[in-house]
Write the structure tokens for this entry.
Amino acid sequence: MSARDEILARIGRAVAGAEDVEIPRGYRAGRQAEGLVELFAERVDDYRAIVHVLPASEVPAKIDESVAGRRMIVPDGFDRTGGWNDLGTADGVITSCAVAIAETGTIVLDHGPGQGTRAQTLVPDYHLCVVRADQIVAGVPEAVARLDPARPLTWISGPSATSDIELNRVEGVHGPRTLEVIIST
């Protein structure tokens, strides 16, 4: 018997005969949709990301300005040409997202069209993410309801950062050091 099987057998014996308990799933949902763009922008800014809230007509020019001089990975399905394919030499990646959460300032990628692979979004030092206003939801329950649990999910809350034992912040250890977000209204 493997260690895994032994542990599962012990758990099975421990709970044998216990009555089933219903777990309530009364999550807060259906909250007000007013002010979501502003709240999301504020929370993303709190994470030390660069944030722009722009009309949709101004987004292409802002993208050009933000990526000027950078070798960018442009994933399949992102509406832009001139991408860089070599992950090892790219300066950054530009993506869309599956959903964004106002309450937490979190961007969720499900790696669908325009979102690239997990490696493409974690290896480069710079990530530019374009979020449409209609992709922003109030909280996590609303975001989860929009996501397919069978897809690979990457939840991004600001640039990559960690702290050492002395609480010194170190950026760029587990992903992009710089996160720039364009919110298209």
Summary: The chain has one domain: 34-184. The mean pLDDT is 88. The domain at 34-184 is CATH 3.40.50.10420 (Rossmann fold).
